[in-house]
């Protein structure tokens, strides 16, 4: 009896799609297969989006030189291994979505928690809840979120957000928590938040007031007193750019796109952009940001090319 082949895990499948779309234009049948795979499972979308960003950041890879190598099969195999290994090292081997109660794909998601607390979950973010035995704890597994805790009632525990770096307890407030590669950033838009460093050996902590922020990591707690009180634009579906390099703007918009965004050529890579973009339509946002520049956008299946 023939044995069925084991399906590839999401990371391996995503690697193959990233490599394939960077090296050739998909025909209609292949594009339909990609779209079906991408939308079939949130884990597929998350793995593909992250690997697309990683592919763009791997500046040491010269695609022109790769294309000249005679054995494409060996090249693709090597690139699949490189991307998969880099993904595992960068993002960890355990997918946050498998532990999450709430996730967001390429859009911003608004959530009401069981106690009435409101959350705005940014794209590619994940939350897990611990509301047992009177607790009101939320674990931010990936990405970033804005929290507006419901008022604490008699018998209720304080509302807290936990990351690998920080334990943030709301003191009647509105605040954002951003899980970075090197730490966790907590910013307060209203009232106060008590922040404690989890990996620090000396139990470092502080209380942040309106307009303050801090970055928490194993190195300690670094306060930023000029964070501002304005609600972050991404919570309203907006991103603002003020004389930002185009690759950085493209990277920010890629978070909200199902397509990989590739910046090609020195002219595009050195271009700087300013303006406010609607994250719901990255293609339109890029066209508006680049309207007064020589850079143009080419749309292909699964890919936006800026050059």
Description:
The model is unreliable at 1-7, 59-71 and 88-93 (pLDDT under 50). By secondary structure, this protein is of the alpha+beta class. The strands form 4 sheets. The protein has a 7-stranded mixed β-sheet with strand order 1-4-5-7-8-11-12, with no helix packed on it. It has helices at residues 10-23, 28-40, 42-57, 63-68, 72-91, 246-254, 266-269, 282-289; strands spanning 102-103, 109-112, 118-121, 126-130, 136-142, 144-148, 159-162, 166-170, 174-179, 184-190, 193-197, 205-208, 213-217, 220-224, 238-245, 260-263, 272-278, 297-300, 303-306. The N and C termini lie far apart (53 Å). It is built from 8 helices and 19 strands. The protein has 3 domains: 10-91, no CATH class; 109-224, Jelly Rolls (Sandwich), CATH 2.60.120.1440; 237-306, Phage tail protein beta-alpha-beta fold (3-Layer(bab) Sandwich), CATH 3.55.50.30. Helix content is 29%, strand content 31%. It is globular, with a radius of gyration of 21 Å.
Q: How would the global form be characterised?
A: globular
Structural class category: alpha+beta
Biggest pleated sheet:
7 strands, mixed
Residues in helix, %: 25-40%
Strand content: 25-35%
State the oligomer: single chain
Q: Main sheet: which strands, in order across? A: 1-4-5-7-8-11-12
Give the C-level CATH assignment of the largest domain: Mainly Beta
CATH domain fold name of the largest domain: Jelly Rolls
Task: Summarize model confidence as the mean pLDDT.
Answer: 82
Pick out the low-confidence regions. Answer: 1-7, 59-71, 88-93
Count the E strands.
19
Helix count, per DSSP? 8
Rg estimate, integer Å: 21 Å
What distance separates the N and C termini?
A: 53 Å
> Helix-strand pattern, N to C?
HHHHHEEEEEEEEEEEEEEEHEHEHEE
Question: Per CATH, which architecture of the largest domain?
Answer: Sandwich
